[in-house]
Amino acid sequence: MEEVFETLDAITQNDSAHVKEELGDLLFNAVMIAFMYEQRDDFSVSDMLNDVCDKLVRRHPHVFASRQQANGEDLSAGAVCARWDDIKANVEARACDSVLDEVPELFPPLLKAYKFLQKAAKKGFEWPHSVYARQKIDEELSELDLAATDVAAALERENHSGFPAEHLEPLTESVQNSSTNQAQLHLEEELGDLLLSVVNFGRMLHVDPCIALDRSLRKFYRRFTHVERGMKTLGKSMNNDNILDMEGLWNEAKKLHD
């Protein structure tokens, strides 16, 4: 996993020398793991490479079929993708109880959300227009606001007004009263629903949320580090007392870097 992310980072930075190094590390790990299976007599490295070549040919009959076979074949993108799915399900015995089972369980949640929604849309479970997906965001945001109000009210009832927010940790029973815990978990649920609706809206706009969020994180990094350097130059502490200075440096960073 580490080598995959390091490779992706090098590719994103467009550093070809670094990409070469990281791809080497990634390939080394793949071959090493395959060789460990070979030592157990499960399969050989050659078996692995032959299998991937066979799969490449099998899943692309429109590419590897003879000219006589290919004549009159529907080569539209939709037909090719449908044939791909059919081969996976019926030829390679990849049939699942649910189409969502095709998405690996250990995918990061943002990527998993995107893939789930893609799979569902292929089965016709889809808004007729992106405007409805946008309206769903407003609906989920309203529900999140109500859930946040419920948490505040629960804390008020427990005489925890002013209770430090950091004490309400996600996925934990953070206070003694079960009703407050339930309110906090409901708030977490509503935030998850909002995030999922945002991912779906982005998908309908043909935006990959993982790429979009990564770009925003890189932008935040550029701006925030500019604020850090600027505050150090001003000889001021980074705290809420100096928020106006930090906001000024943030806006300066937007002009310089964006």
Detailed description of the structure:
The protein is an all-alpha fold. Helices cover 71% and strands 0% of the residues.
| Helix coverage percent | over 70%
Strand content: under 5%
Shape: extended
Number of helical segments with 4 or more residues:
11
Biggest beta sheet attributes: none
Radius of gyration: 25 Å
* Mean pLDDT reading: 88
Order of helices and strands: HHHHHHHHHHH
User: Between the first and last Cα atoms, what is the distance in angstroms?
Assistant: 31 Å
For the secondary structure, the number of strands is 0
Q: Which structural class is indicated by helix and strand composition?
A: mainly alpha
Low-confidence stretches: none
In short:
This protein is 71% helix and 0% strand.
Would you spell out the secondary-structure blueprint of this structure?
Blueprint: H1 2-12, H2 16-39, H3 45-59, H4 61-64, H5 67-70, H6 77-91, H7 109-122, H8 130-157, H9 178-204, H10 209-234, H11 243-257
Helix pairs in contact: 1-2, 7-9, 8-9, 10-11
